[in-house]
Task: structure prediction
Amino acid sequence: MKQSGFLNRIARPFVAIAERHYPDPFIFLIFLTAGAFFLALTLTETTLTEAAWAWGGGLSLLLAFMTQICLTLIAGHALAHTDFIQRLLEKAAQLPRSEVQCYAWAALISGTCTFVSWALGLVAGALIAKQLAKVGEERQWRLHYPLLVASAYSGFIVWHMGYSGSAPLFVATDGHALQNLVGIIPVSGTIFAPWNILTAAIILIAIALVCPHMRPDPDEAIVVSQDTLDHDKPVDLSPSNGVAARMNNARPLSFFLGAAVLAYLTLWFAREGLSLNLNIVNWSFLAAGLLLARSPSHYATLIARAIHTTAPILLQFPFYAAIMGLMTDTGLVSVISNWFTGFATQGTLPLWGFLSGGLINLFIPSGGAQWVVQGPVFLQAASDLGTDPALVVMSIAYGDQWSNMIQPFWAMPLLAIAGLHLREIMGYTFIIFIVGFVIFGTTISLVPYFS
Result:
């Protein structure tokens, strides 16, 4: 019988601490709110009344963005549960030939999908983890399900350096708010810069090597529950009796609607090129889901099944927006950012951008929102110090994605699909957090001297 991985001894204390003491995401949010108030009141000249007003005003700041994110997760979840995509996932899950390869495969599939689209990565990561767990059951492997899901979530660490990264896409857009300061920074200097592509490959390979070696002894492994697997059983459609039932189950109707959305997307890409935003991602998921669904009734059922994944976001996102409002309106973000830039040099500014990005992401886990409040300070510093602004953009992006390994917000949709609690994976993702610090920190420290 295979023994535990050699990193299990290192991971075990963190896993034990997380399982015992790591709070639920909503409790984590409450503590962050209290911490943000404390910092705003002590580090800025803000009264309690002013802080409360700024916090309350922020509650509704990101409602439109919240709706976009929820639609992304719902449409992505529904697409992933269509028969065609399920068959693809099943075939992909059959490829590993050992337990060790399963953990690595979960990280690589998730990371590759995340580099294309963060939403696709979260959904695909959770579903490939479940499929691998199912295959493990069939082959009588003792796969540790929490580590399998943690491996899948670890792939999310590359989202902001990928094609859907908010900060690099923002500064690549003509007319962006900071264009007078830094001009337009093309994605060839950020997302598709050779050093960024190489770093993404290195971190994914490192995760694929590290995760399998954190596996516990087989007799300590927690295998996937049957209830979790049963949740993804195929949808059974009602018999087509009567005109209404036949229309409900008529595939041409859903196919027509999907084709209409696809026609719009074709026009979009013909006019705008390969530019991508969250709306286009959503319409792409929607079109693909409608085209692949068996019928309108089938797709509606898939959507209904997917809605539960958005419950934590609907609850918590307004409060994170409130924290953003508090930190922005009181000047707290500027205080933190200016503190880091105050002792930075031309060569070290990206490193401080990375570290401050990781810190601020704990309070503002939306990458786009974080960039809006932190980016101007660091790009002004880049202009003053003569640092390549593309490096500064990516340094903040690296920090944002790095601390997601200990910030629970983006793990919630994945965990809702996987059927696990946060505390079951956070011990493992903390190890990935350390790995990310070494790789990202090294990259962002060396690139200024070689670019």
